[in-house]
Amino acid sequence: MREREPFDAVILGAGPAGCSAALWLSELGYRVALIEQRDRLLPRLVDLQLAQNWVLGEPHADTADLARRYAAHVEAQALVECMPGDSLAQARRGEVPGGWRLVTRTGRSLACRGILVCTGLLPRRFEACTGPRVPLDAQALTRQRARLRPGRFLLLGGGDNAVENALYLAEAGHRVTLWSRSALRAHCALIARLDAADGAVARRVHQAMPQRLVSRETGVPWQVYSALYGEEEFDHVAVLFGNVPNDEPLRLLAQTASCDGPALQAQGIFLAGDISGRWHPCISTAIADGVQAAKAAQHWLELS
After folding, report:
1. Where are the domains of the chain?
2. Max Cα–Cα distance, the chain, nearest Å
3. Other C-beta atoms lying within 10 Å of the C-beta of residue 295
4. Which CATH superfamily is domain 2-122+243-303 in?
5. What is the spatial distance between Cα 10 and Cα 81, in angstroms, rounded to a whole number?
6. Cβ neighbours around 155 below 10 Å, total
């Protein structure tokens, strides 16, 4: 294992929250290691390459461009050591006085006082799915939708993401079926657009989800089985059920520490960004969460 100098804080996850926390802690004078499982900082923003109009002061900025500028800002910080292409493998508390010994998947050994977990979310999966392919999740659909050949498209879900994608895909020439087990939960403006689409999207609302999705090799339609509709075929299937916290680092930390509620910060563990359970995760809230976590960590570091 390669030994590293002690860090004041190790940040797990280099999305907007992790990068924001790294920037603030370094500006406050703390030495930080920023670990990202993917091969670059801000990987999900780079993947999206989506024009957005939701970040104040950045009208119509592409998410990939935001990612490049955010990453350059953090990488220029002298007190931040960026470690892309790595992730937490082991965590032991007490081997370092008042702190942690972390071992990464690539064999790095890091001594640190505090840990910030900023690992974000993972897409919620549809469990009754068999075959060599998996349905598109929200991020994969956003990346690929402009290149998909028009065909029969099944969208499972009823939130903003599902309705927005249904409208986009219908306009692109797909025959879209939007399937939700409850009432559509998208915001009013999207529902109004859907109502005005004059039946371009077939709706199955308040209906039980399919019993099984079966994929074949690429180019062969999906088989979709349900009690109400029997067996159907779709060329494309996307599951847009929202997300769940990527809490694998917490499970590793819990092997030597209590990770329940208030006990986290007492042991120098802080959560930031989408993993913290924020009601509306987005770039702006993640950046703000990174600041909050950095200030909480600063307070803990000064007292510990």
Report:
1. 2-122+243-303, 125-239
2. 66
3. 15
4. FAD/NAD(P)-binding domain (3.50.50.60)
5. 10
6. 27
Tens of pLDDT, residue by residue over 162-190, are 999 999 999 999 999 999 999 999 999 99
3-class DSSP assignment, residue 56: coil
Q: What is the DSSP letter of 13?
A: -
CA gap 130, 165 in Å, rounded:
24
Answer whether 236's CB lies under 8 Å from 141's CB: no
How many Å apart are CA 199 and CA 201, to the nearest integer? 5
Name residue 204's amino acid: R
Do domains 2-122+243-303 and 125-239 share one topology? The answer is yes
Pairing of strands 121-123, 243-245: antiparallel
> Read out DSSP for 221-264?
PEEEEETTTEEEEESEEEE---EEE--HHHHHHTTTS--STTHH
- Fold for 125-239, please state it: FAD/NAD(P)-binding domain (3.50.50)
pLDDT one-digit tens code per residue, 242-294: 889 999 999 999 887 766 666 788 889 999 998 988 778 899 999 999 999 99
Q: Quick check: pTM over 0.85?
A: yes
Amino acid, single-letter form, for residue 43: P
Report how far residue 29's alpha carbon sits from residue 46's, in angstroms, rounded to the nearest whole number. Answer: 29
